[in-house]
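Hey team,

Filing this mostly as a record. A colleague (T.K.) asked me to run one chain through the structure pipeline before their review meeting, and I want the input and output archived in the tracker in case anyone asks later how it was produced. No errors, nothing strange. Just documentation.

Input sequence:
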Amino acid sequence: MEFLLLGSLAVRREGALLELGGPRQRAVLTMLLLHAGEAVSVAQLTDAVWDSPPVSPESNLRTYVAGLRKVLGDRLITRPGHGYQLLVEPGELDLDAFDELVRAGEEALADNDTGAAAEAFAQALAKWHGVPTGELSGGPLLRAELTRIQERRLTAVERYAKAALELGRFDDVIDRLRRESALHPLREELWALLMLALDRSGRRGEALEAYATARRHVVEQLGVEPGARLRQLQQVILESRVSSPAALNAHRQLPMDIAEFTGRESELRRLCEPGPHSTVVISAIEGMAGVGKTKLAVRAAHRLVKHYPDVQLWADLHGFDPDELPAEPAAVLESFLRLLGVPGGQIPESLEERAALYRDRLAGKRALVLLDNAAGEDQVLPLLPGSATCVVLITSRRTLLRLDGVKSVLLDVFTSCEALALLSRIAGEDRVQADHEAAERVAELCGHLPIAVALAAKRLARRPQWTMLDLVAQLERGGGLGTRGVFDLSYQALPENQRRLFRLLGLHPGEDVTAESAAALAGLTAHEAADLLETLLDEHLLQQHTPGRYSLHDLLRAYAVEQVTATEPPPARTMARRRVLDWYVHTSWHNVQQLNPQRKLDIPPADPAVHPRTFADRDTALLWCDTERANLVAAVRDAAEHGLPEHSWTLAQCLWDFFNLRKHWADWLDTHEVALAAARSVGDRSAEGRMLITLGIGLREVRRHDESIECYQQALTIFRATGDKARQEPTLNNLGIAYMVKGRVDEALSCYEQAAEIARELGNLHTEAVTLNNIGLLHADAGRFDVALSRYLRALEIRREVKDPYSEAILLNNIGEVYRGLLDHPQAVSYVERALETFRAIGDLYGQAESLDNLGLALDGIGDRRGAEKCWLESVTLFEELGEPRADEVRARL
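Output structure:
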């Protein structure tokens, strides 16, 4: 016989389906099959068949059993005093076969045989043919049993997905996980695996859409935010600049390889040959600009990936960028650590500590690190892993003599054969063969430099009417050997609208450009700019590491700067720079509206030709900031250096919410110091004071409290001198916070009381409530709970008039703490639960962690130790995710 339970219930004898009776009789059979070979009691069967059983269920059950015996014969036996038992032979029940295959998969995993595991799990899942006995209307026990086996199936789905992901079978995994997550929208592990599969297959946007869908289900159906795993995975994907995580602590971040790569076979063999097993393998590709170092390194990296599948990291170190300082190793390490799953709050300040943590995170990992455009050994040394399981590829225009054990590969210009091979690949072998001598002359006129040969070949490929001799004539008229003549040939052959955009790109701040920012730069629509950028990409005048983002090779950027300086008069250059900075400022301001709707900031109007981006929600706003971060930081500096100081300080102020959320302390301090200097350079006292406030907050966040206090005091002096009471109030409040952190309680209280008085005078209820909250904190810390409570309750009254969920949640949590101090634990529970509900609604993880800790203390105070434990467990998880040392404090309570 064949018993099918994993879908619609069915029994076959020699292939023929048997009639199993009505729903209740089928429910009896299902319960017996779930416990095949065991006795099932009358009480169990009663709970399995009915929600509200009849007066004498035994009689009904005997009827159903009799009906089943007519079909199953002596397979169904009565066990006096124990109930009924169904006898099933090995191999007859599909559930048994499923369980056996799952066990085989788990054993294969234990033996590190991922392929066998994936196959076993896939075979196990193939046993299922629908929702198990979905047509039954049984009782609570049967529903619980069916849920239990459905849980086993979902666990197998997850095990299969993880194994298949490791094997790179993304498409199969994505299709299955889309179906499963639609059927089980509250099962967060399915969503997490779907996000990983999408991200690892290069579909980061879809991965973030999956998170948004998962979050919507959880919030709408449960009223809470997704769990820590999903939230952390979303953050890791957001912070990944190029591609995806293999897991929460591994990223594949290599730039795209290019199809037109030609030659360099001996160099590739040398770079890919096995190295010593006792130390990190370090290879340095050295050579002049334009010789193809980066392309060779990327091609070698893609060949090596199979040997280093765990982690691939990439950074452009800007060692020879004429418009940008070489990347600081500490900043590169911060980026790498974030990609490796380290929360911003856990990243150390010092270079040495960051390097140590980085080496620890890569210890034992099969990791590949590609460091492009290195300025020298000092820049590279802190970025080297310490594990012999790692390989490092470095490109540089200098010889790196002081790197121990480095394998140097000197890259010269192409040989004649390699140059002709690239010409053939791009322009067509037939055209090279038609005039081999002329082709050799083209290579010679290009100086055999790969970038120049590629440009010349592209020029020929796009002009089918030209012969190779025509190209030679064009190059000879261009005036000499090397890149300049080829650049001129390519540039001058462009239509004027393409030439104009190309040269204006020499003014764009940062590392790369999008259609939207290029549109602002040139005063075009994004659609027009996108078409022009794609044309320049086709002409090999731009390169593209990720879809939608374009960059200039260093040599071409220098050429673009030369052309824009020679062609565009100074007012036109200033106007173009102003437009692109307008775009960054106003897009950043729209971003702030999602990240912190309470922010108030006056910004100057944008040029009418500028069309800033807007954002539908917080997630898309954060994604834009994460992607554009390097350009945003560069834009602040670019504005300050080119006579647009207001853009510098306005953009810096727009960015500080993002820097705070992502814990980009270095960017925060750097941009604000630049913007502060810009404000001082033009004598704008109001802007100087505003920048001192936000710079002071940043200094406070990195615990440089004395410098923070100095900033606030300078700002206060400015605003008192200018009579700006509206600015005095936040300055005093922040100064009070800094004094409180330093233990200068009397000075803190004085600042708070002055701030509250100004807020009342100006009728600013929001800031009055904030300040009253801080005054309450001071009194609570001193044990004056009655005084603290009166301040808090007054602030809460104000909050009923001024809606600010974040501030209200903080206040409710503080009131709960005071009630604990007054030993009124039931009241404490009431207020803290309201705070927690609000923090969850707005997605504030720190607030949730803090209020969960507080709620645990209040519940413990009323004797609910189980409730307290649950709160503290969740609080520890959140604090750990945020990198907060308070996790240890809460863990100690547990």
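Quick notes for T.K.: Residues 148 and 219 are 25 Å apart (CA to CA). The two ends are 54 Å apart (CA to CA).
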